[in-house]
Write a structure and sequence with these properties.
Layout: E1 33-36, H1 89-115, H2 118-123, H3 128-152, E2 161-162, H4 169-191, H5 197-220, H6 236-243, E3 247-249, E4 265-268, E5 278-279, E6 286-287, E7 292-293, E8 310-316, E9 321-322, E10 328-329, E11 339-344, E12 347-352, E13 354-359, E14 364-370, E15 388-394, E16 412-420
Antiparallel strand pairs: 1-12, 2-3, 4-8, 5-6, 6-7, 8-14, 9-10, 11-12, 11-15, 13-14, 15-16
């Protein structure tokens, strides 16, 4: 039984539009447009959405306290017992997606430990203590799955069967880093929209653990552990698009998810890989064009790609069967691809799609785009593109921010792809 306690949430305010059609510092780079949750004046204040009410922030209380030392406001403060269960279809489908994610992580961690010998882990620079940590992370996933099962109730999904394409410890670690990245970001995208605020509180305490897992796999990979100011959120359909291709089958009783499967998207670099670095499968290192890094607490290599880098995009046409028993079909409501949307931290940045060509024999298309040169806001050095972030291809460069990112779903041509930029 889940112990009852109260969920306290903080309401986010509306966001302002910040766009700069020629914001690059290098005049040779193509222009791009950025939308951000901060206002365009660089003050750091969030702009108020006047349609949802204005709070007069004077520094003094504006209403009587309902209880001693309790400022007025706050959701879930009427004294009733929390209801740690879905109360809408949106809750149920979102929490079920989270359960699907916990189950693949549980299977993935256990599978990697079983597939590779202690000697193979040692050759990759990971010793018995590191393997024990992966084993404990699998236990964490079992705990997360149990929690979500109790929240969802008798119709909760059970574990499915999965297929992976990694063949080395280095590739296993890299895949774990990517899976935990989209699992973490997928929850951030819907957590504040859950109608069941009580369930959201428990899920929050679960997903913060997953954030730690993602950082640990980055350290196992020899990457800088946290090269961003803010973690990224993505929509449920984006997370499901990334997850579904690795599920081969599920029991007949497993609930069918209502989220969209977008056509797949891959990004490649001049080295022919999905990252600007390549995994060395014969030594205990990850290599880049100018550095060799090994597993460790941190690395001074804080970015792996740079503004102006040309990115190769390979997208799938809609209509491909994916997911459990190939029972889901990829689809899109968008038009022709025109932009790459770089979803990272609290920003969405659009760059133009170029050299678009369709191959009807392989049911794919190819194009290129260029990594943008923006920072997350003015007068800071933190680039928008860093860490493990996401690229989707869209037909329009609409204004979205973290809280209303789902407005982008109708414009997604393909993706997302995980882009490991640092």
């Amino acid at each position: 039984m889940i112990a009852p306690f109260f969920a306290v949430t903080v309401a986010l305010v509306g966001a302002a539009y910040s766009a700069d059609t020629n914001s690059t510092t290098n005049s040779t780079l193509p222009s791009n447009t950025t939308t951000t949750a901060l206002n365009p004046y660089g003050t750091g204040y969030l702009e108020v959405n006047t349609t949802s009410g204005i709070y007069n922030a004077t520094g003094n209380l504006t209403s009587p306290e309902p209880e001693p030392y309790t400022p007025s406001g706050m959701l879930g403060s009427n004294g009733s017992l929390p209801n740690y269960h879905p109360i809408t279809d949106f809750d149920y489908e979102s929490l079920t997606l989270a359960l699907y994610q916990e189950y693949i992580e549980l299977d993935l961690f256990q599978y990697g430990l079983q597939k590779f010998s202690a000697e193979e882990f040692e050759e990759a620079g990971l010793d018995v203590n590191d393997r024990a940590l992966i084993e404990f992370m699998a236990e964490q996933e079992q705990g997360h799955a149990t929690l979500l099962t109790n929240i969802i109730g008798p119709s909760a999904a059970t574990q499915c069967q999965y297929s992976y394409d990694f063949e080395t410890v280095a590739e296993f670690v890299d895949f774990c880093q990517r899976v935990t990245s989209w699992g973490e970001s997928g929850v951030y995208g819907f957590l504040e929209h859950l109608d069941s605020r009580s369930a959201a509180q428990l899920l929050l305490q679960s997903i913060t653990t997953e954030a730690r897992q993602q950082m640990i796999f980055r350290q196992f990979e020899g990457l800088f552990p946290m090269p961003v100011y803010f973690e990224t959120g993505i929509t449920q359909s984006m997370a499901w698009t990334l997850l579904a291709p690795y599920i081969t089958s599920c029991d007949e009783e497993t609930p069918r998810l209502g989220w969209q499967n977008f056509p797949g998207l891959n990004v490649t670099f001049q080295n022919g890989t999905e990252s600007p670095y390549f995994l060395n499968t014969t030594t205990n290192s990850t290599s880049t064009s100018n550095a060799t890094i090994t597993p460790g607490i941190t690395s001074n290599l804080t970015s792996l790609s740079s503004a102006g880098t040309e990115i190769q995009l390979i997208g799938e046409l809609p209509g491909k069967p994916v997911g459990p028993n190939l029972s889901y079909i990829t689809n899109t409501t968008a038009g022709e691809p025109k932009f790459a949307a770089w979803i990272s931290q609290i920003n969405v940045t659009y760059t133009d799609i170029e050299s678009y060509e369709v191959d009807n024999q392989t049911y794919t298309w190819t194009a290129t785009t260029t990594q943008p040169d923006d920072t997350i806001w003015e007068d800071v050095t933190m680039p928008i593109v860093n860490g493990s972030m996401f690229i989707v291809v869209t037909d329009e460069d609409i204004y979205v921010t973290p809280y209303n990112l789902s407005e982008l779903n109708a414009h997604v041509v393909a993706g997302p792809a995980v882009f490991v930029a640092g």
